[in-house]
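Minutes, project check-in
Item: structure for the 335-residue chain
Input as provided by the requester:
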Amino acid sequence: MSVTIKDVAKKAGVSISTVSKCINGGNVLEPKRTEILNAIEELNYKVNPIARGMKTKKTRTIGVLIPSLKDYYGISILTYVSQFMYEKNYSTIVCDYHMDGDMNNASEKIDFLLDYQVDGIIMQPIGVKPEDFTRIRKEKVPLVFVDIQDEDNYCDSVVIDNESITYEVIKHFIDNGHRNIALITGGSGIVTTDDRVAGYIRALQEGGMPFKPEYVYKESVNEESGYAGMKAFLELETPPTAVFAAGHDLMAGSLLYVADNNLSIPSDISFVGFENSELARIYNPKLTIGIQPMEKIAKAASDMLYERMTGTYLGVARKRKVDTIIEYGASVKKL
């Protein structure tokens, strides 16, 4: 015979309602909480999430929706979010939405998560249309954005200061004597891209240099774009002496082009990458890199979603901006 919540309550010497409160994340004071947890372990009690969801209207699951499971940013955020939410006794359902030009199936994946009755959603909303969020708003399911701010101020968001990190990288090039500086970033019309271009232009202006459109490559955030961007720059009549690839996959693609063409960093081209400090450290010479604190971003998003789901915060939409840093290597040549 399976163990019931009544058995746990009897073993711990508390009421059934106290046990229910404890396993559903409520605040149960010591020593009762420890006694309940010990009873659950000794009796090997298993919570039935379906039955609990029918009674409480809560499934203790969240959805994480990212554009691609191949993307370094998305998979890093997912890893940390799953860890943090597990510590809060929540399971995570992962969905990616495939993008094809202007079309994607984000709305279908949102419907899937809501049909499963997730208690909240964390999402990286690249290329997602406002109407895709209609059902989330209708059902009032808490939603937190990462990487991109909600311009409608409907939901909480966690972002980095993309303009500032790009400004600092370009200024680093300028301080080392570079005047022909290029930027590889994401697609046009995305806030992240716009902010990075703004930081790029601001640094050039302060350095007394003109903006040259041919030195900005805006296509996508995948490896192919990194490769194509570096190729396009180095085939120009006046190629840049320095390139900032503002994304992990863009960095990987750029470095692949450099390797395929027997070029050397920084002798032939100075280079700064983004996101993946592990790759930067093993590259020879060590790369200078802008680092997004993935763990801090995921922690902030998880905490805000948890506060929404538990009702501990019911106020206006919040925007948390997490600081980035530059980890200096030897990939920028002084001219």
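Outcome recorded: The chain is about 45% helix and 15% strand.
No further action items on this chain.
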